[in-house]
């Protein structure tokens, strides 16, 4: 294969795909060497060789369910790679068509499919990241890109900072060596290109313009600045200060047990989620000591009321009645089912000013009737209320381009995969690394453990390390 690679480099030179002189790159840098792979469509045998070399370089191409070429030059390359490897392809539109479905990604794929990016030349990496942004917005997973030529001008590091590992057939230096050895270029030109590589640096500000804000790769500190809802800001702050993304579900039937439980797990949690209407001996006097515990241990009280009625009724349920939720719970859950009137009701009801909503977009229970469109429309509804919405309750990495929202993921347990009433569980590692959870809700995994405080600490540590792992730049 190494010989094939060398022969291929020489062919590229012969067809003028690699030229020497004075050229301007896409982002405005002058360069003595220019690689124009557009001509390759006129040389089918070479295109075929390029595809074979890429498949060889990437190793196990069957790790990917989908491939995508960066438009436009890499589209024919990706097509041939797809045919040769039998891995299906999607196409990214540069602009969504302004009629019909407005899809940015054409082709058949499933959320979570692993997509390999294909590109001809990398200078800054910005074109690849534009494509990655659209793919991840469509819920495809992108971790690797295969490239014909790395111009060694910072693109590889820039991709790495954004979670993409680059695999290149050649560096510019290697390519120059092959061409010099074949006497296609002289030492003067080689020196000129070497000097150019040593002195040219891609302007960081040009690069940063294109950085995609993928919440899954961002720190809570950075995301806190982008949150518009005051409770989201507070949660981000608590999470990074206490180093915990654990929310416990305190589904406990007695007032005394609830207080004891809150006191025990308090040091390890960012939020305590209640179903206050299940407390058999509920009395409004329960609220004050609960608030004191929350203040002492710095966590948020979160009433999981799942409001789902017309706005006016929700206003009463939220701010009146025995529970007077808005007076003590800064956070509540809401169903999008009944429309935005519910959110308007929460926004305008009496009660404490700093309030936030987790909107339910997906559920952890088997056989739930939530459809893909319902989920998508729920996210859209949330985006209409950035000041009110703390985040989304869901089971998959949605809204990756909206780092100000928090993903809350219930159905988390180490011991069991399900209960006997349809609840489904994932492990803490899975929910953070695969499902996109920022905050994980653990109920019975902690409340029914022999020592809830010990269990809470254990979950806290696993979840926090998984978060650190997720935002870490890939170094391999
Ligand atoms: O860990 P568990 O199964 O003991 O408790 C899970 C908690 C319960 C549910 O009411 C809640 O999480 N929940 C939610 C929430 C938070 O709204 C949504 C969902 O889809 N699944 C789920 O279990 O208190």
TrEMBL record:
SMART domains: OMPdecase. Gene3D superfamilies: 3.40.50.2020, Aldolase class I. Its EC number is 2.4.2.10, 4.1.1.23. In the C-terminal section; belongs to the OMP decarboxylase family. In the N-terminal section; belongs to the purine/pyrimidine phosphoribosyltransferase family. GO terms for molecular function: orotate phosphoribosyltransferase activity; orotidine-5'-phosphate decarboxylase activity. One of its GO terms (biological process) is 'de novo' pyrimidine nucleobase biosynthetic process. Pathway: Pyrimidine metabolism; UMP biosynthesis via de novo pathway; UMP from orotate: step 1/2; Pyrimidine metabolism; UMP biosynthesis via de novo pathway; UMP from orotate: step 2/2. Pfam families: OMPdecase, Pribosyltran. Keywords: Decarboxylase, Glycosyltransferase, Lyase, Multifunctional enzyme, Pyrimidine biosynthesis, Transferase. This is Uridine 5'-monophosphate synthase. The active site is at 304 (for ompdecase activity), 306 (for ompdecase activity), 309 (for ompdecase activity). PROSITE patterns: OMPDECASE (PS00156). Substrate binds at residues 251, 273, 364, 423, 443-444. It comes from the Eukaryota. It comes from Phyllotreta striolata. Residues 245-459 form the Orotidine 5'-phosphate decarboxylase domain. SUPFAM superfamilies: PRTase-like, Ribulose-phoshate binding barrel.
